[in-house]
Amino acid sequence: MIIPKIVIVKTIKGQKYADFIAKEINLAGHYCGITDIKNLREYLDKNKCSSKTTLIHSRTAHPNYTSKVLGGLEERGYKIINSPAAIRLTSDKFNSCIYAIKKDIPCAETIKIDKKEAIPFVKEKVEIWGRAVVKPMISQGQGEFCFKFDNADISQLKEINKIPTQELVVQKFVDYLKLNRVIVIGYGALEKAVFWDEPNQGWKCSVCLNTKIQCYKNPPGDLLEFAENVAKKFKAEISFVDVFSTKDGYVLNEINTACSLIIHERISRYNISKKIADYLLSFV
Description:
With 284 residues, this protein is α+β, with helices and mostly antiparallel strands. 32% of the residues lie in helices and 26% in strands. It has nine helices and 13 strands. The strands form three sheets. A five-stranded antiparallel sheet has the order 11-10-9-12-13. A four-stranded parallel sheet has the order 2-1-3-4, sandwiched between helices. The chain has a four-stranded antiparallel sheet with strand order 5-8-6-7, sandwiched between helices.
């Protein structure tokens, strides 16, 4: 039996980008396995993996279940990238913002609230802030359940009830010019894989599953430094840092560790998955 050198933990519903990384690892002459978080421990035992033979790379994130499973394996000695602590922090949109502010990273003012209390609370915040954003505490729906409210649409607050989670995040709206995504691997930004989008009609931008994102030819050096600093402070070795460009400088939107980058590779024509594979193989 060939024991996997690296095991990639995919999301339960998707596998495509995990396949991209696994292909690069296999082409380099090492066996890479893929499983999901629910079957991870069984997969490791079945394939006779151990902390001495196998590294785990998680491409799924959740502050509770995922980080708990990975944390148990870390206690058994497994090297896990990203660490369970980094996954737990980055996948919790409230605590990640609070942590960022404590680490002197500019971030929107953020408050956690129960959905049943949200409508009067958000109405009050709109009166103070002018504009407020409401979204799930854990990302869902690729921005579908992210809402902005101001005095002009305060009557639409019932839209909050569409959010499929009980715990919500309320943020002061960041008046931004661009939303950027910087791919950071081993705490170093990939200069050839920096992307942006800007608001056109409406207020939302996306640098995730957006086929119209733009790739910088010469990304701003201070943007790369900002993203690298965020990754280092969050101890997120492989991360995708989303940053607002504002008239007053950069503001962290969020840091992710489990996004598909298929669109980003196609638009940039840059093999990001090979860079991820090379970094993982540096520990083998």
